[in-house]
Amino acid sequence: MENRATSEWANQLLRPDKKQRRLELQGRLMTLISAWVIILTLFSLLYFIASKGISTFLFDGVSLSQFFSGKWAPAGTPPSFGTLPFILGSFMVTVLAAVISAPLGIGAAIYMTEIAPSWGKKILQPVIELLVGIPSVVYGFVGLTVIVPFLRDVTGGPGFSLLAGVLVLSVMILPTITSIAVDTLQSIPRSMREASYALGATRWQTISRVLVRTSLPGLMTGVVLGMARAFGEALAVQMVIGNTDTMPTNLIQPISTLTSVITLHMGDTVPGTVYNDVLWSMALILLLMTLVFIVLIRWMTRRGES
Amino acid sequence: MWKKTLATISSMVLVFGLAVGCAKGNQQGGGAAGGKLTAVGSTAMQPLVEEAANQFMAQNPGTQITVQGGGSGAGLSAVLNGSADIGNSDLFAEEKKKDPTKMVDHRVFVVGMAPVVNPKVGIDNLTQQQLVDIFTGKIKNWREVGGPDQKIVLVNRPENSGTRATFVKYALNGANEYRGKDSIVQDSSGTVRKIVAETPGAIGYLAFSYFDKSIKPVKLDGVEPTNENVYTNKWKVWAYEHMYTNADGKNKELEEKFINFILTPEVQKNLVEKMGYIPMTEMKVERDAQGNVKNKK
């Protein structure tokens, strides 16, 4: 009885079913189309930004050395389009935010997975998910109303500063770093922890010498992803950073980032002018940096696998 | 039980759908002057144009007017390349280095601008020379103009902003491009107001429509920044708000109807004044793109 049922099932599975085949074809077609739409979108985006960004150098006669110089005077006579202060500003904000966020995020992840897995996770997980969901304009507004006046009282400057941008950004990228670190730490097999304890290592030794070391590529991926987010974040940064075109030389001085310059000026410039093209070139730099971040992540994960 | 609720819900949906369908049918039947219009550009004009569009749509069922921001430059370009019907701009097209012959200029209302300071600075009058010196960075402390011993914090606008262009031209006499080293740049008027209100020693500039108790407008050479002083050009820092249309646009009829609606005394007297702008109808003087002022006939 049972045998007959099984063989019937087997027959049904082996027989080429027209309906199923059609379904399979449909599914394949749908995924194929989606994949191509994404690829095409990406490439047209790349092409669009690159062609607009490159025209600064090809048609407007702005030299590369001028573009990477420190003199920004787009309305001057003659106009000058040096974007070095903004490039440096973007990098400094990003790196410093990562310096603050990485230890905090990884620490929180270790706490959630290794030290207090049950209730630590119960409290921290929703908090982190909440942080991801807050729109960036809210971070910017909190920065403007809380962090800027606080810095003004403490440091004596105008409050709008590199430091304000760093503080806002470090909170924004914290959830990215933490959640990826949690995933990485959880993926470490239990046997590794047990082996470490069996050798007589303490919990702290296990965490610092075994767990963090094995998951380092994953942890770094989280940090780089966080940095990519910080590098591209525009609105929140623009609200607290001051947007002056000065070189970032100290922490409490107002500066600009690539994104803040683009968002502030794009609406007021006329498409087709040099000024507008220069903004697109800055967007191109942002895009290229994002690509660098992605390559970095791929390289790190591959190193982690081998 | 379940079936009953389901039936109720579905009947409700049905009734609602019918009602909506009927309303739609009515609208299509009644509104003869239907059509779509897009207005893009100056964020300073956006709230007023939006409100005017709402009133216009209420009076002319079947018309659909979409109002977007994006900046004066974007508005002018959109009209030139036909992606929008109306381009809202704080500046004359000439000032944006745009060919004005392809566009029709409609000046719909006037906006006054004035320097504003943090109330704690306690300054309420400056000479124009002092203002220029402050914004060019020559004067760095409020003490030098009779205020407290406090550092001046400049709150600027981006290079191409319409508000900034007007301010530089008429308040700073076109003075040499100012570059305060430790100044703050911000483009949204609301944020500028917040920064000036909260930063000790701050000075910025705002349109009259953004004035409130949190900041203090400054008199220039004893002239108060009021609507009445703008009418006669006694207060010189003001600009027209323009609505540019393409010289050979497709929606001419509706464009004209909407712009004339904004120019009606009703809208000018109520909406324009209520939102802090200055009605065209009250202006006693006229100004051209070069800044020449003459009395209105």
UniProtKB/TrEMBL annotation, chain B:
PROSITE patterns xrefs: PROKAR_LIPOPROTEIN
Compartments it resides in: Cell membrane
InterPro entries cross-referenced by the UniProt entry: PBP_domain, Phos-bd, Phosphate_ABC_transporter
Domain PBP intervals: 27-266
Keywords: Cell membrane, Lipoprotein, Membrane, Palmitate, Phosphate transport, Signal, Transport
Family assignment from sequence similarity: Belongs to the PstS family.
Annotated function: Involved in the system for phosphate transport across the cytoplasmic membrane.
Protein name per UniProt: Phosphate-binding protein
Native source species: Polycladomyces abyssicola
